[in-house]
């Protein structure tokens, strides 16, 4: 199946303009956009029949859909995704929106929870959508951890703390990870987690990795000394013990058992390194993200979109996130700068209260 970038490369200037006009018209009105409407707005003067042919091609590519016979077109989820990634023009923050958000600063005497509640209410009022405010990260013993795949390159970690607090953090999983491997990682961490904070859990994983590496070194020492094996990329994440061919002809069953044990330890070492990387990635984050329709597995609302941005403390560490949930027909060009500004506002509030 073609992804959005490949399809975009296949389109000519006319197709791109027709596609952009259809999406913008739909986001503005919520109604299908017809060929006659487009003849009045396109920069190039073409007939309605020509535009209909272009729209049929875009429908064939999976970017547009016709909800009714003889009606105009609306963008598909793939079409919206491609528009957001490649054609969206983000506007400057409107002054009236900025003033409404800034008004949350007039009473800075609340506790952090009260401040975030007021900011969430202001964000909902400005965007006419449901607001999402994930509270600052805190170091407390963790009761349970779970990784949820949101796509091939996006995941969510759910942290349940011993005091009942729950945090959801978005991150990019290491390449090649599957939902199954993420479940295994969570199961392993949950077996170690009792009474430990996230940073303490990372220390435990570092100790586990060091112990495995030492065990491998001890077993492999004689093979390396005798020249039957050699380290490749020693010390790197991709290190391997290369066993020379003649080593497999020597030593009989006892040496084969030793080699099997080394291989098994390497597999275990790699799993633990992956798990350690998961823990590190839960501390990372990025700028405004947009999840459209069924991409939005976080809420299982196939007809909704989520625009979310992390916020940072004075040390530039990501400590939470704010966002807006609404229909896929969001005014993304307006919502993105609002969410971005709100994230900056929350970060400033949290930093000023330290």
Automatic annotation (TrEMBL):
Pfam families, sorted: HrcA
What residue stretches are annotated with the Heat-inducible transcription repressor HrcA C-terminal domain?
115-336
Its keywords, alphabetically, are:
Repressor, Stress response, Transcription, Transcription regulation
Question: Single GO molecular-function term?
Answer: DNA binding
Classification via PANTHER family: HEAT-INDUCIBLE TRANSCRIPTION REPRESSOR HRCA
Function comment: Negative regulator of class I heat shock genes (grpE-dnaK-dnaJ and groELS operons). Prevents heat-shock induction of these operons.
Protein known as: Heat-inducible transcription repressor HrcA
Gene name? hrcA
């Amino acid at each position: 199946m073609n992804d959005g970038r490949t399809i975009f490369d296949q389109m000519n200037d006319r197709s791109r303009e027709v596609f952009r006009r259809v999406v913008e018209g739909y986001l503005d009105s919520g109604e299908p956009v017809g060929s006659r409407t487009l003849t009045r707005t396109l920069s190039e003067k073409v007939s309605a029949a020509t535009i209909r042919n272009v729209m049929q091609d875009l429908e064939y590519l999976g970017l547009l859909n016709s909800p009714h016979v003889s009606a105009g077109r609306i963008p598909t989820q793939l079409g919206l995704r491609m528009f957001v990634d490649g054609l969206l023009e983000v506007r400057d923050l409107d002054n009236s929106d900025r003033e409404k958000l800034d008004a949350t600063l007039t009473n800075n005497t609340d506790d952090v929870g009260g401040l975030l509640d007021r900011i969430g209410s202001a964000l909902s009022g400005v965007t006419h959508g449901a607001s999402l405010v994930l509270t600052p990260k805190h170091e407390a013993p963790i009761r349970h951890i779970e990784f949820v795949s949101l796509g091939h390159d996006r995941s969510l970690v759910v942290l349940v703390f011993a005091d009942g607090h729950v945090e959801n953090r978005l991150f990019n999983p290491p390449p090649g990870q599957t939902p199954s491997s993420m479940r295994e990682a969570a199961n392993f961490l949950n077996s170690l987690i009792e009474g430990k904070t996230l940073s303490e859990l990372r220390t435990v994983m570092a100790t586990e990795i060091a112990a495995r590496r030492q065990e491998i070194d001890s077993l492999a020492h004689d093979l390396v000394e005798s020249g039957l094996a050699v380290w490749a990329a020693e010390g790197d994440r991709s290190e391997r013990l290369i066993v020379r061919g003649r080593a497999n002809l020597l030593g009989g069953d006892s040496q084969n058992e030793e080699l099997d044990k080394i291989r098994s330890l390497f597999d275990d070492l790699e799993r633990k390194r992956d798990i350690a990387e998961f823990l590190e990635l839960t501390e990372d984050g990025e700028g405004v993200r947009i999840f459209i329709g069924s991409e939005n597995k976080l809420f299982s609302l196939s007809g909704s979109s989520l625009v979310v941005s992390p916020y940072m403390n004075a040390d530039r560490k990501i400590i939470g996130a704010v966002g807006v949930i609404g229909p896929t027909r969001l005014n993304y060009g307006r919502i993105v700068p609002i969410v971005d500004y709100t994230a900056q506002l929350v970060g400033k509030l949290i930093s000023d209260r330290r």
